[in-house]
Design a protein that fits this description.
It is a single chain. Helix content is 54%, strand content 9%. The protein has 700 residues and is α+β, with helices and mostly antiparallel strands. Among the domains are: 51-182, Endopeptidase. Chain P, domain 1 (Glutathione S-transferase Yfyf (Class Pi), Chain A, domain 2); 363-558 and 618-697, Neurolysin, domain 3 (Orthogonal Bundle). Mean pLDDT is 92; it is low at 1-25 and 691-700.
Length: 700
C-alpha cells in the first residue's frame, strides 16, 4: 500500500472541529481544519499515544525514561564507532548517535517552552540539561574523535566517500575542534570549563534581556500609568511601546526599558570575553571567525564589507527617509520636533499609512486563516506537487487541544513528513513565531526506510469566534508564509544524514526559503487564488495588494539601516576585544551606521537577545534577504506558480539541507556565483518604487 493510501486510511471520517459559517462556498478540508474552533474529545477511553506519538511521553516522568533509553543507545553507538574500521559506516554511526540524542533533546527543547503544564515543562528542562551534559562529554571524547580523525586523515578512504558523507564527517570534526579536542589535557579542561560557563552566562543574559525594568510611579505622569504594569508603588516597563502615538509614552518607555542594569552589563561583558577566549583557545582569530566558518559569508571581513557597502549605497535614501520623519514629527508635535530613536518605528508607520491606505482591518476579512492555509496548499501543489492534508491527532499526541496536525504528501513520493501547527494564543505561551525541528529526516540503514521529519510551527494568532474564523492582518499572513517556508525546507529535503536535515544548515542560508515565501505572500497572482472575503466571497482587490507592496518601500532605507546597525554591533562585539565598554561601542556604531542620536543612560545592547542564538550572525537576515530577492527576480517573478522552476528550486536549494556548501546551492539556482556587490544591489533595488505598475493598478 502506498504511503498516500495509508494516510487516507488514517484519517477518520468524524470531525473534531466545529466549522464556522462561510456564506459563499465550502472550505476545503485543510481550510475547514483551521477556520474552526476545536471540539473536545468525547472518547475518554481512547488510549493515549504520548506527545508526538512517543509512548513514554504520556506523562512528565516519561522524559526521564526517554532520556535513559537514548543514553543507553548512545553508549552502544559510541562503542561501535570506536571499534569499527574507518569508512562510510563511521559517519553513519556518528549520525545515528546524533539522531538518538537529538530526537529527545529537540523534542524536550520545544516542550519546555510550549507545554501549558508546568510539570511537563520542568521535566523537559531537566532532560535538556541532561542531554546537553552528555553532548559536551561526547565532544571532548578523545577516542571517539580519533575514530573520525582516522577516516579524515586517510586519503584513500576519504576518496571513496560521496560528497555528502565527506561534508558530514567534516562537520562532526568541526564540532570536536570547537570544543578543544585537539588541545592538551590542561587546555582541553579549560575549554570545557569555558563551555560550561557560557551555558550559564547565555541563560542569565537571555532571562535578563526580557526582564522588565521598574520605576517609581511618582516619576511617571499619572495619565500614563495605565499603559504599564504595576507592582506596589512601582511601574513595570516591559517593552518599548514603539507604535504608540503618544511621544511622551514612547520616550519614557525607551528610557526606562533600556536603562542599564549593572549586573546584566557585567554578564554581557563576561559572556563576550569568554566567547573570545574560547575561540582563541581552539585556534580562531575571534569568536566571529569561528562562528562564520561554513557560512556563505565565511569571514567577519566579508560581512563588514557587505554592511559598509550597503550603508554607502543607502546613504542618500536613508537621509531622505529621516528627513521625512522629521517633517512628520514637526507636523504632529511642533514643540518637540527633534527626531529620536524612539520615533522611528511609529513615524515610519504613519508615513506609510498616509501615503497608502493600508489599515490592517481593511485586509483582514480577506485573509482568514483557513483561506491562507488553502492558499499555501494550492501554492505547494503547483510548485512541488505537494498537498497539506489535515489529520486528527490521537489522544495525548498534542500538548493543546487547538493544535492542528498536517501530513505533507507528495503526488508520487507519498508521505514526506508531518507539521504540527500550534497557531493560537494561550497563557504562558511565548509570543514569538518559531519553527522547531522535532525529528530530522535521515535514511535508516538499520530499518531500511526513511525517517520522516516532524516539525512544529508556533504562532500567536487570535482564536476563531462564533461568528468569524481567525482573521489575519497582512503582517500575520506574511509571518505564516515565512514560517511555512522553514517547514517546507524541512519537508522537501531528503538528506541521507539527519545532522544536515532541512534547516540544519548555515544560518545565512537557513532564512532564504522562509524569506522567499514572503515574496509569494505579497504577489497578487498568488493571493488571488485564496484571498477572498470570508462572508461575501469577493476577491481582495488588486489595487489593495499593490498599495501594500509599495507601502513597504516607504522609509525602507532607514529600516534597513537600522538592521545594518544591529548587525555591525554584533560583529564588533564578537571581534577582537576593545578597551572600551559595550555601551561606548554602541554609541560609536550608532553614530556611524544609524544616524539618530544615542540617548544617554540607555543600553540597548542589554535587550539584544539575538546575541545569544545569533552571535556574530545577525547579518544573516540581510544576506538571506538578498539571496531570496535574487531568486525571486530571476526565477519566479515572471511566473510564481511555475512547476518547472519549483522543481528546480527544490532540487538545487531545498533538497540538500546543510549537506552542500550554501554558496554552491545559490550558484546552482542562479547559474552564477553572486558577489558582495550583487547582494547589495539586490537589497537596494528593492526600494525602487514601481511607479508604472502602481499608476496602472490605481487607474484600473
Amino acid at each position: 500500500m502506498s504511503a498516500c493510501k495509508r494516510l487516507v486510511c488514517l484519517i477518520k471520517p468524524r470531525s473534531l472541529w466545529a466549522p464556522t459559517r462561510r456564506n459563499v462556498s465550502t472550505w476545503s478540508p485543510v481550510g475547514t481544519a483551521f477556520n474552526a474552533r476545536p471540539l473536545k474529545r468525547q472518547d475518554f477511553f481512547e488510549k493515549t499515544v504520548g506527545l508526538f506519538g512517543v509512548p513514554e511521553l504520556s506523562s512528565p516522568a516519561g522524559f526521564q525514561v526517554a532520556a535513559q533509553t537514548a543514553l543507553r543507545k548512545t553508549e552502544s553507538l559510541v562503542e561501535r564507532a570506536c571499534s569499527s574500521p574507518a569508512g562510510v559506516g563511521t559517519v553513519e554511526c556518528f549520525d545515528q548517535l546524533s539522531d538518538e540524542l537529538c530526537k529527545v533533546a529537540d523534542l524536550a527543547d520545544f516542550i519546555k517552552v510550549a507545554h501549558p503544564d508546568p510539570e511537563y515543562r520542568e521535566a523537559a528542562e531537566k532532560t535538556c540539561v541532561e542531554i546537553g551534559t552528555v553532548v559536551e562529554k561526547l565532544n571532548t571524547n578523545v577516542e571517539l574523535c580519533q575514530s573520525l580523525k582516522k577516516l579524515l586523515d586517510d586519503p584513500k578512504t576519504l576518496a571513496q566517500l560521496d560528497p555528502d558523507t565527506r561534508r558530514v564527517a567534516e562537520l562532526f570534526m568541526f564540532d570536536f575542534e570547537i570544543s578543544g579536542i585537539h588541545l592538551d589535557e590542561k587546555l582541553r579542561k579549560e575549554a570545557v570549563g569555558l563551555h560550561v560557563k557560557l551555558l550559564d552566562l547565555n541563560n542569565e543574559f537571555l532571562i535578563g534581556s526580557h526582564t522588565p525594568n521598574r520605576i517609581a510611579k511618582s516619576a511617571i505622569p499619572q495619565h500614563l500609568h495605565m499603559h504599564f504594569g504595576s507592582e506596589g508603588s512601582f511601574i513595570q516597563v516591559g517593552g518599548l511601546h514603539a507604535d504608540s502615538p503618544d511621544d511622551l509614552l514612547r520616550e519614557i518607555a525607551y528610557r526606562v526599558y533600556l536603562y542599564p542594569n549593572a549586573d546584566l552589563m557585567d554578564c554581557l561583558e563576561e559572556l563576550l570575553k569568554c566567547r573570545y577566549k574560547l575561540a582563541k583557545l581552539v585556534g580562531y582569530k575571534s569568536y566571529g571567525h569561528r562562528a562564520l566558518k561554513g557560512t556563505m559569508a565565511k569571514s567577519p571581513e566579508t560581512v563588514m564589507s557587505f554592511l559598509q557597502l550597503l550603508t554607502d549605497k543607502l546613504s542618500d535614501r536613508t537621509k531622505k527617509d529621516f528627513q521625512m520623519m522629521r517633517d512628520m514629527k514637526k507636523k504632529l508635535n511642533p514643540r518637540n520636533p527633534e527626531l529620536m530613536a524612539w520615533d522611528h518605528p511609529f513615524l515610519s508607520g504613519v508615513l506609510r499609512a498616509e501615503r497608502f491606505n493600508i489599515e490592517p482591518s481593511l485586509y483582514s476579512p480577506y485573509l482568514s486563516l483557513g483561506g491562507c492555509m488553502e492558499g499555501l496548499n494550492s501554492l505547494f501543489s503547483q510548485l512541488y506537487g505537494v498537498s497539506l492534508m489535515s489529520e486528527h491527532p490521537s489522544a495525548g499526541e498534542v500538548w493543546s487541544e487547538d493544535v492542528r496536525k498536517l501530513a505533507v504528501v507528495h503526488e508520487t513520493e507519498g508521505l514526506l513528513g508531518h507539521i504540527y501547527c500550534d497557531f493560537f494564543q494561550r497563557s504562558d505561551k511565548p509570543h514569538q513565531d518559531c519553527h522547531f525541528t522535532i525529528r530530522g529526516g535521515r535514511w535508516c540503514k538499520e530499518a531500511g526506510r526513511y525517517q520522516l521529519p516532524v516539525v512544529v510551527l508556533m504562532l500567536s494568532l487570535p482564536h476563531p469566534t462564533k461568528s468569524a474564523p481567525t482573521l489575519l492582518t497582512p503582517g500575520m499572513m506574511e509571518n505564516l508564509f515565512h514560517e511555512m517556508g522553514h517547514a517546507m525546507h524541512s519537508m522537501l529535503g531528503r538528506t541521507r544524514y539527519q545532522h544536515v536535515t532541512g534547516t540544519r544548515c548555515a544560518t545565512d542560508f537557513a532564512e532564504v526559503p522562509s524569506i522567499l515565501m514572503e515574496y509569494f505572500a505579497t504577489d497578487y497572482r498568488v493571493l488571488s487564488q485564496f484571498a477572498r472575503h470570508y462572508q461575501t466571497g469577493q476577491p481582495l482587490p488588486e489595487t489593495m495588494v499593490t498599495r501594500l507592496s509599495e507601502s513597504k518601500k516607504v522609509c525602507g532605507a532607514a529600516d534597513t539601516q537600522l538592521q545594518i546597525f544591529y548587525a555591525v554591533l554584533d560583529q564588533i562585539y564578537h571581534g577582537k576585544p576593545q578597551n572600551r565598554s559595550t555601551t561606548e561601542i554602541l554609541k560609536d556604531m550608532q553614530q556611524k551606521f544609524y544616524g539618530l542620536p544615542y540617548t544617554p543612560n540607555t543600553a540597548w545592547q542589554l535587550r539584544f537577545s539575538h546575541l545569544i542564538g545569533y552571535g556574530a550572525k545577525y547579518y544573516s537576515y540581510l544576506m538571506s534577504r538578498a539571496v531570496a530577492s535574487m531568486v525571486w527576480k530571476q526565477c519566479f517573478i515572471q511566473d510564481p506558480l511555475n512547476r518547472d522552476m519549483g522543481e528546480r528550486y527544490r532540487r538545487e536549494m531545498l533538497a540538500h539541507g546543510g549537506a552542500k556548501e550554501p554558496m554552491l546551492m545559490v550558484e546552482g539556482m542562479l547559474q552564477r556565483r553572486p558577489s558582495t556587490e550583487d547582494f547589495v544591489e539586490a537589497l537596494v533595488s528593492e526600494l525602487d518604487p514601481n511607479f508604472d505598475t502602481f499608476i496602472m493598478d490605481s487607474e484600473s
